[in-house]
Records
---
Amino acid sequence: PLVLGIETSCDETGVALVRGDELLVDAVASSMEEHARYGGIIPEVASRAHLEAMIPTIQKALGEADVDLSEVDAIAVTAGPGLVGPLTIGASAAKALSIGLNKPLYGVNHVIGHACVDQLVDGPLPERAMALVVSGGHSSLLLVQDIATDVVELGSTLDDAAGEAFDKVGRLLGLPYPGGPHIDRLAREGDPTAIRFPRGLTAAKDQAKHAYDFSFSGLKTAVARWVEARTDAGEEIPVNDVAASFAEAVADVLTAKTIAACHRNGVDTLVIGGGFSANSQLREMAAKRCAEAGIDLRIPPIRYCTDNGAMIAALGSAVVRAGVAPSALDIPVDSSMPLTTVTV
Ligand code: ATP
Ligand code: MG
Ligand code: FE
């Protein structure tokens, strides 16, 4: 079946067409440049941008793939989690298409889409796989027993997402927004062992309840204190070493917990998705530790890791093929959709 996927959970308007596990086209429009002026995403600005970009992006996707709307067999759309205004705009477009074309509608989970998109690149996931989804809004560890029907949330961040922590540390180091890529670049010139920053939720006392949860706000505060103390003492800040030591702490926690979860669940395939998977320190450490642990590591190219329509069309395609019932036409969007809910 040919599935048209629509993604509008945050600041990217994404529209893609997927047939089976084959991606025909992935069109995306972003309002990030507008948000950069404010140093963060303004939901109202994002909503208006989605409204303006939606129809042109649908037309662009259809045109590039040389597909007529009448050929589409099903519509998939992000139902959550995400910003409620932006989600509503994507859902409204998807409902209109579903009604107009008389084709089934599937409201799907954005975070699970970040894991599913890998199937378009690396082929079908094995029966059980681990997925680490890390972005500006999410840091979650999912046990994927069946991408269309059975996903277990092993853990998530209790406070900041990994990308968010990078952006906050970027701000305190005076870097432009978003700070993540800048810290990555500076960290490559620094010594990751220069400063021992804390690893959140790794202490023995946290193992019972939070073995697979993450916490990055304590780390961010530790970096702020360290920088403040040096500044107060009139010392120069070794920015590269701070960036490298901070990035090392984040990568260490993410990879250690994820690999422990793979071992304890007898899983030997790991997918990393979400925009933060661009981070070189995470990529390097994950590659090294997965190789040592005999885990097959799959990270799709970065354009599929940031928010896009392909991830939603991919999950829609998997769900259709699994024979899951379509969503009701009045699908509710859910800003905090549970990560165990694949479709609504
Ligand atoms: P979501 O809705 O999935 O949370 P998002 O727009 O918040 O999406 P993405 O666009 O997927 O997130 O990723 C952007 C985040 O990743 C930002 O926080 C950004 O700073 C961070 N990031 C991107 N590249 C890097 C990098 N190389 N190193 C560190 N952080 C990065
Ligand atoms: Mg984004
Ligand atoms: Fe996302």
---
Amino acid sequence: MSDTPWFYENFEHTGSAIGFRIVRKLDEVQSPFQKIEIFETTDFGNLMVIDGAMMVTTRENFFYHEMMSHAAIYTHAAPKDIAIIGGGDCGTLRECLKHADVRSVVQCDIDEQVTRMAEKYFPELCESNNDPRATVMFDDGIAYMRNAAPESLDIIIVDSTDPVGPAEGLFNRAFYEDCFKALRPDGLLVQQSESPLALMHLIQDMVGAMGDAGFQSFRTLPFPQPCYPTGWWSCTIAGKQARDLAKFRLPDAAAKPFRTEYYNAGMHVAALAQPEFMKRALQQT
Ligand code: SAM
């Protein structure tokens, strides 16, 4: 096995790296927006890499996709209409559609090639794409939110790449103001918020910009994600109203009628507990 190649992603900002042992490269495409590569790994199934950054593997994407969707859905009283900005691998879309009471989910990714690659190499993530409640579209999420009808959505999930390149504009006040307008009064915004260990300043800036846009309540939930920098990730939920985002529909989550790999009511409670350094930095009671 010593001659088997590895794919490493070096994180310059954390001085660390994560790697997977590779069998071979399966595909590569340069879209108008980014370079997408697919590798077969020896132990984690297929791996999608965008512009050198690992996005998903077959074996461990469930941490991220389940926490990006179910935590917010069970924090909202009765979500009907959801928009996903980014999320082109379709894993978050699949998780949202596990909720029978959800009426519509629009996924708006800027890059059709990400979804075409996911259909080919991660078909299990795309198994709900033809659900009649799903709309899979390809456009800039910034423009999509700017043009969204006011108070038309219950939850917006920003499942984006890191805040560089096409995703840069998904992390600023102007975008959050458009999200604020598009949400109903009890609406929630959820954003992948990077590693609390490596990028706390980014979470602070993000929450600050969300507050400047009018959001009233915030909660950052940490969870494992082995293929992302430091292996430890987070999502941040922002509420349009002032409310306790640590309160969620626990009995419904405990009785969820669908299968997950990570999310359950107990893991949701666990993710609401923050380590001391996060509490100090974020002041989210
Ligand atoms: N889970 C991954 C992570 O946190 O690294 C993200 C996965 S998902 C594949 C990220 C998606 O965001 C990509 O498909 C990319 O095309 C999309 N994206 C980046 N900028 C965007 C924008 N401005 N509008 C819509 N989608 C965007």
